[in-house]
């Protein structure tokens, strides 16, 4: 194996996703404890926004601005270098999460055993399915009285359109939770309330042994045997290839806060999860072990401190070796750029790195030139596909309140939307600026940041639009005609793609039906 192949084989880059409160932060922390990246519980700050209030968000952004370390957490375990990409929990920032999902090779989905599949779980899984991202499911909070595990699995299959395969199985739940039986290892892991230690109480127990009765109790042992028989009857044997192609999700049970079931999850993750994979660009599939470096920007983090306007762009390395100080081409701008202080996120501290390999995430200082989705190469003309924008749901027109500051406003809106805080559409006549988001909170955030970072004041005027669809046609004339007829119902996104702005689902449907030559797309990813 060449050096680069060895480096690739060591890397695992993934995200933990969940509906807020299911236990994502807790699980992240326990994983980091195993990896020795942190020493104490409570070290990982939740990025959760408790109230839907701007001040709360700003507080968090401030903390994160100072230590962006929580955006990517890297730790070593079993000779692997594991990168966890953090995703915001708040619904209004779902787009940020979707984009982060384009930069990972797999995900762990956390489900609360009491609540089952929740709204945001469904949305997040839709994005994973767009790319056949491999998923491991962790059913959390088994120390609570939850739903029947078979019912939970049925719910996962139905609501998430995902085949599952349990690899551990709980013995009871709630107050009488005894632990989980590992179906492949044939070991019983006994549950103890244990918040900090990392040892397990494990016993190798054959299902048909008398020892199982002795240790687990005759009644529970009988139930376990019955359950396992049913599992083997209902679910296919676990096949790693099916997991890697996104067809089957292995399922683990545990209790993150008690550090229970986490080690089995991590061990399995190390064994089965994918290495950095080949990725699609607009011209060809790029393999990670190619000689030349390529990568893309999936996230831009503003420095909230107005005295330091620089931003941090997060680069996912896709192929070759990234080197500090070397010139790379930003293929969107046709411009060569180099980075003298790129850094990694090892041990939750920023460290300048000399090199980066596929799977790595590198922080680059940016003075406002990057846009989400930008691709860096050693000169080759290609662009990574797959930083989708999703149809926003709330639309407001931006009104400038201080004509003396229109330049600042212009620049601010441009930069904030480049960061992906919201989407900007231009509507004619008059170059009106319309901002579209998936949550109300972003409008407050933009207003606040325009004022504090750019010195520009604005107000919002609510629009009737509730749906936006990118429009294309095989016949350019027909598209032009459609655009002309729709007039002010057409906006242009930042890349000048036409977008149809509809007041209602009904209006959208009517336009779809009446214009069979026009294609309507709910994400910008339609090439
Ligand atoms: P996130 O919003 O998904 O990041 O969720 P958190 O990790 O912040 O957890 C939400 C709440 O659930 C916190 O109060 C945790 O202490 C609690 N929690 C996490 N894991 C467990 C668990 O296994 N059992 C119980 N009973 N509570 C848990």
Automatic annotation (TrEMBL):
Subcellular location per the Swiss-Prot or TrEMBL entry: Cytoplasm
Keyword field contains Membrane: no
The membrane spanning regions, by residue number, are none
Pfam families recorded:
EF-G_D2, GTP_EFTU, RF3_C
Question: Which controlled-vocabulary keywords does the entry list?
Answer: Cytoplasm, GTP-binding, Nucleotide-binding, Protein biosynthesis
PROSITE patterns registered for this protein in UniProt: G_TR_1, G_TR_2
Positions of the Tr-type G domain:
9-277
What name is this protein filed under? Peptide chain release factor 3
Taxonomic lineage from the root: Bacteria, Pseudomonadati, Bacteroidota, Cytophagia, Cytophagales
């Amino acid at each position: 194996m060449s050096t680069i192949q060895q480096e690739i084989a060591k890397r695992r880059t993934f995200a933990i996703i969940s509906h807020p409160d299911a236990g994502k932060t807790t699980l992240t922390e326990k994983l980091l404890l195993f990896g020795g990246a942190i020493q104490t519980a409570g070290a990982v700050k939740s990025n959760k926004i408790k109230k839907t209030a701007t001040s709360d968000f700003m507080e968090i952004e401030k903390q994160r601005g100072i230590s962006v370390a929580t955006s990517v957490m890297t730790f070593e375990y079993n000779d692997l270098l594991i990168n966890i990409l953090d995703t915001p929990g708040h619904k209004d920032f779902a787009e940020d999460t979707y984009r982060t999902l384009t930069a990972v090779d797999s995900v762990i989905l956390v489900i609360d055993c009491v609540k089952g599949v929740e709204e945001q779980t469904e949305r997040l899984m839709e994005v994973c399915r767009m790319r056949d991202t491999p998923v491991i499911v962790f059913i959390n909070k088994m120390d609570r009285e939850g739903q029947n595990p078979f019912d939970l699995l049925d719910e996962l299959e139905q609501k998430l359109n995902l085949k599952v395969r349990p690899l551990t199985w709980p013995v009871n739940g709630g107050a009488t939770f005894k632990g989980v039986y590992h179906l492949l290892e044939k070991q019983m892991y006994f549950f103890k309330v244990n918040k900090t230690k990392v040892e397990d109480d494990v016993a190798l127990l054959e299902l048909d042994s008398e020892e199982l009765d002795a240790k687990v109790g005759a009644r529970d042992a009988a139930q376990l045997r019955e359950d396992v028989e049913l599992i083997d009857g209902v679910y296919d044997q676990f096949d790693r290839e099916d997991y890697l192609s996104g067809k089957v999700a292995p399922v683990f049970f545990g209790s993150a806060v008690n550090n229970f079931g986490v080690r089995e999850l991590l061990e399995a993750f190390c064994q089965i999860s994918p290495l950095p994979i080949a990725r699609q660009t607009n011209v060809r599939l790029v393999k990670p072990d190619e000689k030349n470096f390529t990568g893309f920007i999936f996230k831009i983090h503003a420095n909230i401190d107005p005295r330091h306007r620089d931003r941090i762009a997060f680069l996912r390395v896709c192929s070759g070796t990234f080197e500090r100080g070397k010139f790379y081409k930003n293929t969107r701008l046709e411009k060569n750029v180099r980075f003298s202080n790129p850094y990694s996120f090892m041990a939750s501290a920023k460290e300048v790195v000399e090199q980066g390999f596929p799977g790595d995430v590198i922080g680059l200082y940016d003075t406002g030139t990057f846009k989400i989705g930008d691709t860096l190469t050693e000169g080759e003309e290609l662009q990574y596909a797959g930083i989708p924008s999703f149809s926003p749901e709330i639309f407001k027109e931006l009104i400038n309140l201080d004509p003396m500051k229109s330049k600042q406003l212009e620049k601010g809106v441009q930069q904030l939307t480049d960061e992906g805080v919201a989407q900007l559409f231009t509507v004619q006549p008059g170059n009106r600026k319309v901002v579209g988001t998936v949550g109300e909170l972003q409008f407050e955030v933009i207003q606040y940041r325009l004022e504090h970072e750019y010195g520009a004041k604005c107000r919002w005027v609510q629009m009737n639009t509730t749906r936006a669809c990118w429009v294309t046609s095989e016949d350019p004339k027909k598209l032009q005609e459609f655009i002309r007829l729709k007039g002010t119902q057409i906006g242009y996104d930042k890349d000048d793609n036409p977008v149809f702005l509809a007041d209602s689902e009904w209006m959208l449907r009517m336009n779809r039906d009446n214009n069979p030559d026009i294609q309507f797309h709910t994400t910008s990813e339609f090439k």
